[in-house]
Amino acid sequence: MAFRFTIAIAILDVVLLTRSRTDDRCGGTRMSGAPVRMDAVVVRGDDELTGRCRLADYSGSRVSMRRPGPNGYLVRMFPKRIVKGRVVLVTGASAGIGRSVAARLATAGATVVTSARDGTRLRTAARYLPGTVDPVECDLTDQRQRREMIDYVVARHGRLDALVNNAGLGHVGLFGDIDQNSLREIVELNVIAVADLTRLTLPHIADRGGDVVMISSVAGWVPVPPLSLYSATKAAVNALVHALRREAPPGLRIHSINPGPVRTEWLLRAAGLRPSDDEGRRGCSFGTSPERVAEEVYRCLTGYRNRTVAVPRWFGAARLAGLPPLSNALDLALAPVAPLLARWARHYQDSLVTRARREQHGDLDDTTSTLPTSTTPRN
Ligand SMILES: NC(=O)c1ccc[n+]([C@@H]2O[C@H](COP(=O)([O-])OP(=O)(O)OC[C@H]3O[C@@H](n4cnc5c(N)ncnc54)[C@H](OP(=O)(O)O)[C@@H]3O)[C@@H](O)[C@H]2O)c1
C-alpha cells in the first residue's frame, strides 16, 4: 500500500514538474513554471525522487526532487565535478588557446601549472591570472624536459589530476615543400610529445579519475592541402584518443576538442617565429575566440563522460567528410586546387607576419614572408 502510494506521488510529481520552471533558491533549485522533461524517475524512500533533468541550463545534470513544500518543489542539483583544488597541467599556455584555458581553470579555482618555451611570456601571463598558477619553462620537443616537468609537478604539488595537451605547431604549404627540420619538429611536438606526456601522466591520474584533454583540430577529421602534415598529426592524436578510451581504467576520461580556425598567433609560429605579446596580438589569424575553446576544456573537466567536441559545434559535421563517398569526392575536388589553396594560405600568413612587423616599425612596405627582426627565430 505504502509502495503504491509512493508511486502515485512520484507520477504526480513528474506531471507537475513538466509544467514548472526553475529559479535558484536556498542553495537548491525551485521548480515553478516552464517545461522540464525527465529521462527517468526513481523513487527513493518516501520523500525523494532522483532523475535526469533536460533543462537547457542543466542538460544532463542529475537532480534530486523533494516533495512539495510551502515554496514549491525543491530540486537539488547534484553538482558537476569541481575543478577547484585540482592540479592541472596545461601545455603551450604562454599564448592563444593554452593561455585562455589556464585563465579559465585558474578562475575556477584549479592549481594550474602552465608550460611553454618562453619563460618570460609565461610568467607575465601568470601574473595576471587569479589563484595559483605555476609557470614552468619547458621545450616539449625535448624528452628529458618533458619527464622533468611531470616529476616537478608531482613533487611540487603532490599530485596531478589532469593534463591538457594543447601545445601544437602547424606548417602552411604543400607537403612536398616541408624541410626535414620542420617535419621533425611538427611531428615531435604534435604527436610524440603528446603521446609521451600522456604516458608519463597516466600513472598519476589513473586511480584518481583524472582527465586528459587533447586539443586536436577539425583538420584531423578533414585533412586539407595547405595543412597536410599538420592534419596528419592531428588525425594521429584523434586515433590516440580512441585507443586510450578503449584501454583506460574506469574513471579515467580522455577528451578531444577539435577547433576550426581560432583567433591566435599560430600562423606566426607556423612561419617560424617566436612572437612577443604585442606581435602576437597584431598577428592573430581569423577565427573563433580562444575563450570558447577554453570553455569546452572546462566542461570536459567538470563533466562525467569522455567528450569529443568541435568548436564551434557545427564544425562537427566535418566528420562526415572522412567517410566515402564524400571523402572520395574531396580527394578529386581538392587535388587540382591544392597549389592555389597553398598559395592563398601562404599569402594570408605573409600578410599577418607583415602586420605584426609593420605596426612595430611603422613603414615597412615589404609584404613578402621574411623573419621579422623583432621576433626570435625558431631554433
Ligand atoms: N589557432 C587555430 O586556428 C587552431 C585550430 C585548431 C587547433 N589548434 C590547436 O590548438 C593548439 C593551440 O594552438 P594556438 O592557436 O593557441 O597556438 P599558438 O597561439 O601558436 O600557441 C602555441 C603555444 O604552444 C607553445 N609551444 C610551441 N612550441 C612549443 C614547444 N616546442 N614546447 C613547448 N611549448 C611550445 C607556445 O609557446 P612558446 O612559443 O613560448 O613555446 C604557445 O604557448 C595547438 O595544438 C593547435 O594545433 C589551433
From TrEMBL:
Protein name stated in the entry: Short-subunit dehydrogenase
Residue ranges constituting the Ketoreductase domain according to the UniProt record: 86-260
PROSITE patterns: ADH_SHORT
Record key words, sorted: Oxidoreductase
Stretches the record annotates as Disordered: 359-379
Similarity comment: family membership: Belongs to the short-chain dehydrogenases/reductases (SDR) family.
Compositionally biased intervals (Low complexity): 367-379
GO MF annotation, one: oxidoreductase activity
Species the sequence originates in: Actinophytocola algeriensis
